[in-house]
Amino acid sequence: MENSNHIIIDSKELNGKRVLVTGGTGGGMGEATVKRLARAGATVITTARHTPDELKDSDLFIQADISTPEGTTKVVEYLLKRFGGVDILVNNVGGSSTPTGGVLKQTDADWQRTFETNLFAAVRLDRGLLPSMLEQGGGVIVHVTSIQRRFPGENTMAYSAAKAALTNYSKALATELAPKGIRVNSVAPGFTETKAAERLIERMAQERGCDYSDARQSLMDSLGGIPIGRTARPEEVAELVAFLVSDRASYIVGAEHTIDGGIVRTI
Ligand SMILES: NC(=O)c1ccc[n+]([C@@H]2O[C@H](COP(=O)([O-])OP(=O)(O)OC[C@H]3O[C@@H](n4cnc5c(N)ncnc54)[C@H](OP(=O)(O)O)[C@@H]3O)[C@@H](O)[C@H]2O)c1
Q1: Cα–Cα distances in Å, from 129 out to 21, 141, 211, 222?
Q2: Quick one: which atom of ligand 1 is closest to the CA of 196?
């Protein structure tokens, strides 16, 4: 047992498990999840478009742009060849880079890119890795969505729509696969202060001609405030994922788990 940030981690809980967490290098939820699952004893493989120096020679890293079919094929082929598949798949990659300024600013290319990154990457990776999970008779899949799937953002409508589609797809997949021993769930974070979120705030500040703290505040205001009084830490989301992929969550299937400090007021 390891005591980390007042959380007791069973360092053998995921022993022998092969895990793919997409997008595990960016100082956000992906990276926090990679670290948390590795601490639980899993062999954790991750992907990103850019290769960090420390992962250059690692067989636990696959350089790929998973918003393309070529990228997901590369990831799947590597995992099947090198590890014979995975036991746990955390589809973490996602995000929005569409312009602000309303619906008329959003081009076809913006919509397409957003859906490729937030929906099709997960669909393709699931489809590529599921046959090996089915063959071994078990597995766990988590889709990282967003509270925006039911709380569309002012300037992120394509992203919100893609996350809504991902949530819907996740539910259908869970129903189909539960009888086959594969559990599928989704995690919907609120405002989590990751490096990617910081970049979004910086972009908003630039576009609006205000400073970082004003842009950050206006983002919090656009959410109607955060009842718990602060943004989330990536490690808090990783802790939820660690629970969901473990046998402690053995009866949890097809559920969306919101982790937002109370932002979404509806039930
Ligand atoms: N941050 C928030 O407030 C928030 C709120 C709700 C939901 N979410 C969702 O939570 C998830 C994690 O978000 P995060 O902010 O914590 O980001 P993150 O996990 O830090 O994600 C960034 C990582 O993804 C990789 N990546 C990005 N695009 C990629 C692509 N096309 N192919 C391969 N790798 C790619 C990045 O590396 P490279 O740049 O090198 O590719 C980096 O490793 C996302 O699905 C996001 O939509 C975030």
Answers
A1: 13, 10, 44, 38
A2: 15
Q: Which range, of 84-88, 196-200, 208-212, averages the lowest pLDDT? A: 196-200
CA distance 157 to 145: 14
Determine the atom of ligand 1 nearest the C-alpha atom of 144: 45
As a whole number of angstroms, the distance between CA 235 and CA 242 comes to 10
Probe ligand 1: pick from 20, 21, 22, 29, max atoms within 8 Å of CB? Answer: 29
- CB 29 near ligand 1, within 6 Å: yes
Substitution site in 194, 201, 204, 231 for ligand 1 pocket (most atoms within 8 Å of beta carbon): 194
- Please state which CATH number belongs to domain 2-192+232-259: 3.40.50.720
Pick from 152, 174, 179: which is nearest to 255 by CA? 174
Chain segment 147-165, per-residue pLDDT in tens: 999 989 878 999 999 999 9
Residue 3, pLDDT score = 59
Strands in 97-204 per DSSP E = 139-144, 182-189
